[in-house]
């Protein structure tokens, strides 16, 4: 297996491995690289849905995402249709970590490219671990004591757009009621590396708790601006069959919505055992 770092702080391209048929040793090696680099890219894997779900199982337990459409257990559809380009999906066009509105949010995920626009549709990842490390000590000390509320409804509101049918709206409201807000530290300690990572995002975080709302907004803005600095980032230009495997604590990501055709990725999640 060959690993080529794509930037100094985040992301490596991995060659010489077939993800549909990996040995125990290869999985251990991939897991270590994932912890070291935050996100790993594999070209031309073209995994079937079953192979994708099976590969991800080797990193930990699955995290049922009842609110997402799926093709089989733990293979979720991440799709943007031309007609939807600039409506509710716009809610996800911000830096985020996935599903942090769950207490048991995914520790990591895999995305695979199923259908791509002729041009554009890249995804960027940013190292929330390196971003935290690079903050001045005084700010780090302050953030280490804070917790924030994460709330599905903070972003679901984007989905209640004027084009929605009433049956869809009813099912959206049910999702909102089924998923209560939860609280996470603003700086999450990674369960395997023990390293502190910034853990707030524009999509699901609604407020830092126990402080004034204006102060919470200012501190969240500071974190969001910091996470989105280009020096912490890597950008992936998808090709069909590609796989990206990412740690959902030590990285955040953003999909670039600069296209008007259909784009389809499949996502599978895991929590480290
Ligand atoms: C996401 O934004 O959660 C998925 C990433 C992508 O669509 O590129």
Summarize, please:
With 273 residues, the chain is an alpha+beta fold. The protein is built from seven helices and 17 strands. The strands form four sheets. Strands 1, 2, 3, 4, 5, 6, 7, 15 and 17 form a nine-stranded mixed sheet that branches. Strands 14-8-16 form a three-stranded antiparallel sheet.
Uncertain stretches? 85-91
Associated small molecules: succinic acid
Count of individual helical segments: 7
The first-level CATH class name: Alpha Beta
Main beta sheet: 9 strands, mixed
> What proportion strand?
25-35%
Order of helices and strands: EEHEHEEEEEHHEHHEEEEHEEEE
Shape: globular
CATH fold annotation:
Double-stranded beta-helix
**How many distinct beta strands?**
17
Q: Which superfamily, in CATH terms, is the homologous superfamily?
A: Clavaminate synthase-like
- Separation of termini? 24 Å
Q: Could you explain how this protein is built, in words?
A:
The chain has 273 residues and is α+β, with helices and mostly antiparallel strands. The protein has one domain (2-272): Clavaminate synthase-like (Double-stranded beta-helix, 4-Layer Sandwich), CATH 3.60.130.10. The protein is 25% helix and 29% strand. It has seven helices and 17 strands. Strands 1, 2, 3, 4, 5, 6, 7, 15 and 17 form a nine-stranded mixed beta sheet that branches. A three-stranded antiparallel beta sheet has the order 14-8-16. A three-stranded antiparallel beta sheet has the order 10-9-13. Strand 1 (2-5) and strand 2 form a beta hairpin. It starts with a strand and ends with a strand. Mean pLDDT is 90; it is low at 85-91. Bound molecules: succinic acid. Residues 78, 92, 98, 111, 123, 253, 255, 265 line the site of succinic acid.
